[in-house]
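Morning - adenosine-5'-diphosphate inputs below, output right after.
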Amino acid sequence: AGPLSIDDVSKTYAGARPNGAVRALSRVSLDIGEGEFLSIIGPSGCGKTTLLNMIAGFVTPSTGVVRRGAVAIAGPGPDRTMMFQDYALFPWLTVADNIAFGLRAKGLSRRERETAVARFVDLARLKGFEDRLPHELSGGMRQRVSVARALAPDPDIVLMDEPFAALDSLTRDALQEELLAIWERSGKTFVLVTHNIEEALFLSDRVVVMAPRPGRIQTIVEIPLPRP
Ligand code: ADP
Ligand code: ADP
């Protein structure tokens, strides 16, 4: 448990181009408090996804360290889940099985899993669609499955990589309101990566702007927002 601290982190992807490695992040430091809703914005290619993937534990820093409390993050863990722009649902699993996926790792009984799935089916307004496959759903519904799958294991930290980018504006507005309501009553830490400043301003209590070229020392400008 504890806040996240990103401490002087750099990332170079080796051999990504014929003519050499790509420096994706340079010496980024950032603290993220427990229960905070933080947005990270910046132009395409500045390293936002790399940073988010490091918090998730999918990407290892080349130098520097990401910590949760006093403990260095060394890989994915049940305290952190992620949502993606393309939903990344398991196409061969039903809505219910997608939502149940992260629950197996938590060692819950079948009964407990069923209860949790039913709760998150309700929360994501997916009642009646439990046995559908992802390709049978609209984009908005798929992203709601992805929200339910991310929240069902009760993570402390929810990471979101452009989760609204593929949605039409009405669907996006509705999902944003829902996520905000969930965040407000859950006490979880939400970290959103987006290139949409309006989205960031609407949703978060703090906006971090990463600027602008990977390979340089990254400038991070923080915009604290008063909560109404
Ligand atoms: P953003 O999310 O801000 O668009 P990314 O973190 O996706 O930025 O990418 C930062 C830089 O690292 C870009 O130049 C990108 O091409 C490069 N990059 C990202 N992921 C990889 C990878 N797996 N292998 C090689 N290069 C990568
Ligand atoms: P969202 O705004 O979440 O994307 P839509 O506007 O696509 O939802 O759909 C609204 C409602 O229409 C859904 O909640 C669902 O009841 C129904 N619906 C949408 N797509 C499908 C589908 N492929 N099969 C059955 N019902 C659907």
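Note: The chain has a mean pLDDT of 91.

O.
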